[in-house]
Amino acid sequence: MRPYDIVVRYGGDEFLCAMPNISRDAALDRLTAIAATLTAAGSGHSITFGLAEHHLAAVDLEDLVAQADADMIATRHPREEDTGPS
């Protein structure tokens, strides 16, 4: 993480991270690298994350968190038609 990225505990084992001035692709690369580092550290170390992006100064925080949560759930549980028999 960069020194000016903001990470806060959202609840239980959930955290929110604000990463200003970064593209979605760059944020995905950073978080994927962090996930790989944690996985390499040994069993029991992992993260699952979702991303949400906004471009306006006035953003509804609840909607942004809901978008990131939906993205995380989609990452955890790929669509059944993608994993089911053909």
Question: Would you give an account of this structure?
Answer:
The chain has one domain (6-79). 43% of the residues lie in helices and 13% in strands. The chain is built from three helices and two strands, in the order ββααα. The longest helix is centred in the middle third of the chain and has 17 residues, at 24-40. The N and C termini lie far apart (41 Å). Mean pLDDT is 83; it is low at 80-86.
Which features does this protein show?
two-stranded antiparallel ribbon, single chain, 86 residues, alpha+beta, 2 strands, disordered C terminus
* Gross geometry: globular
Order of SSEs:
EEHHH
Radius of gyration: 15 Å
> What are the segments in which pLDDT stays under 50 over at least 5 consecutive residues?
80-86
Q: How many helices?
A: 3
How many strands in all? 2
Helix content: 40-55%
- Largest sheet, order of strands side by side? 1-2
Describe how the helices and strands are arranged.
Elements: E1 6-11, E2 14-18, H1 24-40, H2 61-76, H3 80-83
Antiparallel strand pairs: 1-2
What's a concise summary of this model?
With 86 residues, this protein is α+β, with helices and mostly antiparallel strands. It has helices at residues 24-40, 61-76, 80-83, and strands at residues 6-11, 14-18. The protein has one domain.
